[in-house]
């Protein structure tokens, strides 16, 4: 730098004066981390404060001396499970049905789980039968790492029955993904003609959470519906079911505890508990039903927008709350059925403040509801001991008449604006106040059966996305 430039810079520096200003976006004041300055009569405001006021992330590249502003929300990374192990019959592992980031783990390490295993539907004599092509499939959870553009499996843990027991179907400590009782959806072999045995310990897992107070995992199950507590090594400790369901699970090897209201046994088949989460302090567990239940009947449930969220005190394992979450109105969208607007996962930000994964059944360009909402149950009415409300959640349209406030919803992100391609957005967790991580269930790549009864395999992928959003707390 020449002497003239130095003199000019010095002169400019002398004219830079700090000023106290108030910066507003709308009616909200923006807090400045540094004072604004005036130079030669022009006002200069810290770029980070300005970017955040405009709802954008500000990134500084010191090497290239470059400032980048990106509008929220945006996709910061996509990771694909490119090499899942084989399960036979051309099928591979897959189906991320939940997602959890454990505090203290690296930002690219997560836990996820798969559901009851590969299953399809085949029509036999005009009846649609549910097939389980891999009959010895064992429900499992994974510890994964996001590297490059790939999902890599660090650990695979298969669920185990309590020590010293053997499953009535598996003949070992492993459980299965088969249906529990005769009123469940029947399980058939790959031909769709041979009925498979019922397994009172069978599980259809959909959500995963972690309790820091006793170092155990909790998982949600669609079958009963039920909540499963288990050790890190996969050993199941207990299964919490609706009142009246214990007698139905004769010969179960898992200790069965009746603690969920009996009305939950009226869940619609394959629409049981989906989301589960635990408050960061480990005090409370929350579980969401996937769809409105058959209360008083299936037609009412399928037409209803009212879903239930339960709250459990983990110190006592007793329920302390039940809340109503109202799903989006399918009539406001095109080719969306109300029965297919569901909750697929939960994530607790604090006591009573949760993120909710709400989605429709469509995918790609046809998808219209792939959303994350923030709710505060402290602002909703606890209806657990309100018989008039809890006994008929699905059939109620006028909550004000019952003096009930449903969970208030605040949109965090709409994935359709990010060209999310998958139907089953089923995993949701957070890294920090600006970062969501989501996963999809690819149904193990199971497609339809052809005219010859041969199962088709799809190329649908399992992916994990990292998404940047505005501050969530």
UniProtKB/TrEMBL annotation:
It comes from the Bacteria. Residues 94-444 form the Phytase-like domain. Residues 28-69 form the Copper amine oxidase-like N-terminal domain. This is Esterase-like activity of phytase family protein. It comes from Paenibacillus lignilyticus. The lineage of its organism: Bacteria, Bacillati, Bacillota, Bacilli, Bacillales.
